[in-house]
Amino acid sequence: MMETDPAMHKSHNTIRLAILALLALGSTGNAQGPAGRLHLLLDDAEIESEENLRRVLHSPTPKEVVVELDRPYEDSTMYDPTVIHENGRYRMWYRANFNARPFYTGYAESTDGIRWTKPDLGLIEYASSKQNNIVWPVPGGKGHTLSFFRDDNPRTPASERYKAIGLESEQVDGKTRAVLYGMVSEDGLRWRQAQPEPIVRAPLDDPQFDAHNIALWDSARNQYVIYARGWARHKVRDIRRFTSTDFRNWSEPRYVDFGGAPIEELYKNAAIPYFRRPDIILMFPKRFLPQRKFDPQWKEDGLSDVVFTFSRDGLRFDRRFMEAFIRPGPDPLNWHERAIEAGPTLVPAGPSEMALYYMEHYRSPKVRVRRGILRTDGLVSLRGGYQGGSLVTRPLRMEGSQLLLNYSTSAVGRVRVEIQDSTGGPVAGFALADCPEIFGDEIDRKVSWKSGGDFARLAGQTVRLKIEIKDGDLYSYRIQ
User: Fold this and answer.
1) What percent of the chain has pLDDT over 90?
2) How far is 226 from 146, CA to CA, in rounded Å?
3) Is the pLDDT reported for residue 17 higher than 80?
4) Is the pTM of this model over 0.90?
5) Which pLDDT value is given to residue 452?
6) In the structure, how many helices (H) and strands (E) does the chain have?
7) Does the pLDDT value for residue 203 go beyond 50?
8) Which pLDDT band, with edges at 50, 70 and 90, does 368 fall under?
9) Mean pLDDT, all residues of the chain
10) Around Cβ 352, how many Cβ atoms within 10 Å?
11) Average pLDDT for residues 232-259, to the nearest whole number?
12) CATH 2.115.10.20 is right for the domain spanning 61-375
């Protein structure tokens, strides 16, 4: 778990937070909108003030190895997993090889996210047999190192419910530039080109798209988005964005904004909308340090780890956490240049957990995918120490009758909540003194006051919440 440096936070994010605060205001200029949605504690966009609290980043707990190199068409460059969860099933697509063409894409699935199978699909021929889990390339198909997503755009025909993008290159006036092809599928297994031509071409003055370029459907902004590699801005590996309303015609690229954060090489981006708040785009970039080397016998220079960043608008990303989100750890096979990488793989893993899948041991015969676990909404918390602290939310228009907290305390810790009126005073019956101490470790704890836990009589009113935290963490809150 990592804590933010308050000085760095202020210097890097003051302007961004001011903008986010204005965006958070409703049309009346004094309320955020309905309180019924999930409120995360990633930043201060929904908080008016806080005292004696610190923001903490929580890393995933490593769990099972779920996919390993075990097929003849897979090699030590097996990489770039994408995972989705739908209808009680987990589905994974991954690059099976990169040492020799053709570059195959494999498919695996699971009912619990832990035990995975590579089914014989009978789709693509390899070594005179179709008994394999290969889904790409189809004969004549263009593009490799694919990223996949389920397209929940309500206007999308069923025949294109699943989409992907893949990397290639072309020659223009003697220069090489990268291009991205689009693929579509009805079932995520049987794929075809979206169109004969690339859907995106890199500008000639910034021509590289190397790495796992990510495509997604941004339901909050009603658009498709590609987050792709770029180089021109800082002359290091970087991230730029394209947008589209139809998946065929795309905007000119625009580099994402990291505010005043230090410039680092971000090799991959692993962008994904958060499944419980799709308007928030999460990224788990692989940070690359080309100048370092841990094992003098390893043939390549460089080290990697995984970092965390997020955005409330898809373009401005908050990098207040500069520390690693996933470290290489004690395993020596993770201490080389591209050894670990997270894909766009954050999915629910039950009512109280979520899973993030990441690669280990790249370029070795032991390359594999591991599952990491976080609590639901548990990427970032606000933590109060033994002396306690508190926060006050921005104004909320109350809709609903029950307040639910995702929190954790020590045995001596506690959480209490006060509902404040538009003047900042406690609403009668809902003061801190009226709220019995809450302690434990729960995802959805209903808050009660001495008069009960139903505040439906406040519906439509503009209020603030004051939340007191002693020796505990608050991960999220919501009103239903």
Assistant:
1) 88
2) 12
3) no
4) yes
5) 84
6) 1, 36
7) yes
8) very high
9) 93
10) 15
11) 97
12) yes
Rounded CA separation 368/360 (Å): 5
Distances (CA, A) of 380 to 58, 320, 406, 467: 6, 11, 12, 16
Alpha-carbon distance of 214 to 327, in angstroms, equals: 22
The dihedral region occupied by 168, where left means phi > 0, alpha psi between -120 and 50, and beta the remainder, is: beta
How many whole angstroms separate alpha carbon 189 and alpha carbon 446?
43
Provide the residue ranges of all domains of the chain, joining segments of one domain with +.
2-58+380-479, 61-375
User: Is the pLDDT confidence value at 12 over 90?
Assistant: no
In 284-388 the beta strands, taken as DSSP E runs, fall at: 286-289, 303-306, 309-311, 317-318, 341-342, 347-348, 353-360, 368-375, 380-384
Question: Which amino acid is located at 90 in the chain?
Answer: Y
Domain 2-58+380-479 sits in CATH 2.60.120.260? yes
pLDDT in tens, 375-422: 999 999 999 999 999 999 999 998 888 999 999 999 999 999 999 998
Length of the chain in terms of residues written = 480
Could you say which DSSP state residue 438 is in? Answer: B
The closest of 414, 411, 400 to 453, measured between CA atoms, is 400
| Residues 166, 197: Cα–Cα separation, whole Å | 12
User: Is the separation of the CB atoms in 384 and 470 below 8 Å?
Assistant: yes
DSSP string, 27-49: TTSS--SBTTS-EE-SSSTTEEE
Cα–Cα distance for residue pair 113/363, rounded to 1 Å: 25
Cβ atoms of 162 and 184 closer than 8 Å? yes
Compute how many other C-beta atoms are within 10 angstroms of the C-beta atom of residue 297.
6
Residue 9: pLDDT over 70: no
